[in-house]
Amino acid sequence: MTATVPAAVAAAPAKVRRANFASAWLGWMLDGFETYSIVLVGSLVVADLIGQGASPLYFGTILAVQLVAWAIGGLTSGVLIDYFGRRRVLMVSILTYAIATGLAALSPNFTIFLILRIIAGLGMGAEWGPGSALVAETWSDRTRGRGIALLQCAFGVGFLVATGVFWLLGPTDPGTWRWLLAIGALPALVVLFVRRRVGESPLWQESDKRRREANARAQRGEAREGDRALTTFTLRAIFADRVSRGRMLKLLALSTASLVGWWAVSTWVPQYAGAAVKAAGAAPTTTTLIVVAYNAGGVVGWLVWGLLADTIGRRWALFGYFAGALVLTWVLFGFHWGSLGLLTLVVAVNGFFTLGQMGWMATYPGELFPTHLRGSAITVVFNASRIFAAAGALLSGAIVGGLGGIATAALVIGSIYVLGIVFSLIAGPETKGLPLPK
Q: Where are the transmembrane segments (predicted)?
């Protein structure tokens, strides 16, 4: 697992590398737009399709079903990109979530809305893996952390775009959610760009060639040493090997901390800020500005993650971000903020750590597994823990409804960042500046 691919194999024309990055960036940015659109308009959806005063569990259900669908779509795409390539799966995934999101804007009732959000979630989950693999496999070893961070910050940019569009459409207009989701059909146009400009990963092409050759030898009864690793089903291969299994379990602990912490805590930031704005008697648009501050902090956090990962290393950068996320979650939700200015600042710093840390999942796992398993490995890390995050979203909704406070739910669920602190330094070897394993 430590051998590396020759430079000639890993090389790709600069024009292709730029197109690959642009397509992955656009796809992930629009994923962020879709994701945060639901966070912003979830309460409007519930009020419109269920009725005013509906239980917070309805909002938690929207988040939970999308998370589960995202996990299923992501896990499926990881296997598909290892066997059929990064480019093809990228196109299908973008088209799926774009069409389903556009149709969701026309939902006549809550049940149909949930069904369409499940389909959209499948496509959204499937988009991340091929885009991340394409960029990781065509970026230089020395600056891969920064390249992946630049890609991952697109998710936060999508948050900012969604927030801006939400503000322009009118945060209090009951029909805003339909218009915001209708705009979500635009990513379908990205498929045209992907189809014309994006090239396949040379690393995957070489890996696919070796896999096909190994399968052919196995059918002739001429299997060589190492062929079994190439011909074993990817998910089984990851957990069959003792070293890769140990790494995967530790990475899953880290991703559970990241995703549960974000989905079950920070998704309540808009409503928490809205309550503070209302109590202060400020204009409702102030809530939007506070949410923008959170997302802007996340974008900066992603970019700084890449710089730190390429300088002090992946593991120490992880440790710092998890520690910061724990502290800032308690600072944000553990105190009463009389000043909206101070609240905005704390929200921004919270976003730096809780949202900005997500970059590690596209960087570190892919550097611990060989090319023929990379797609499956990174999507398992990124998506399997979403099941726990879905439970966290429902639990936080129940805590809010039962105890009557968003802050209480955030403080309880946010403590999971302790898990990230513990596992950040033992998840695997340092990979800063090293070539991707063959």
A: 25-45, 57-81, 88-106, 112-136, 148-170, 176-194, 251-269, 289-309, 316-337, 343-364, 376-400, 406-428
